[in-house]
Amino acid sequence: MLPIYKRVLLKLSGEALMGKQTFGIDPEIVASISAEIKDVVERGVQLGIVVGGGNIFRGLGAEGRCIERTTADYMGMLATMINSLALQSALEKIGVSTRVQSAIEMKEVAEPFIQRRAIRHLEKGRVVIFACGTGSPYFTTDTAATLRAMEIKAEVIMKATKVDGVYDKDPVKFKDAQKFREINYTDILTRNLQIMDAAAISMCRDNGLKIIVFNLQERGNILKVICGEPIGTLVSD
Fold this sequence. Notes:
The protein is an alpha/beta fold. The protein has helices at residues 27-41, 59-62, 69-93, 115-123, 141-151, 185-190, 198-207, 221-226, and strands at 7-12, 46-51, 98-102, 111-112, 127-131, 156-161, 166-167, 179-180, 182-184, 210-215, 233-236. The chain has one domain (7-236): Carbamate kinase (3-Layer(aba) Sandwich), CATH 3.40.1160.
């Protein structure tokens, strides 16, 4: 299989790293995702990654429970750094050169985010993991993924989820849920489908950045999407 994309931003949820656990990081899942990423990189694809932190701490869920929203969001950013370092370690263990760049300065564990440096890493075949969201509260990691994708000039955002695409309603709760093979940004917003937050969808629409939503739990799907196989849902104009 030959890739149809040269530079991609992969968005992973923190929950994707949990496996069947209810909290934390499952080493087997991280190793499995890393092996798939290696397959992609070996085909010459330049890959940036944004990882959520919901498996460790979700800032929005803590609001109103004795933790102020801004503080809670910063705690969530720190959780994304934990996940980013775990993924970096797993990738480098199998020979994939990786850099973590942080929106919050943590010079002992990660580089600061610098757009030109990130692009240079990608051009040299390194995976770049973007940690700590945008570095500001009130923005989700979906928005961070969209922002970083535009900054590195990615051709597409690959949104890895637990379901195999975008549905008109929750397929877990409703057996008659209908899957979209393709859908445009405006329909996502007007139907309030919430595959990503509204700010992220609007940014993608305004800049013509495609999104592909697919199931991460099926082995090999990352490579299939990059090679253009019609799985998941394409969000575009």
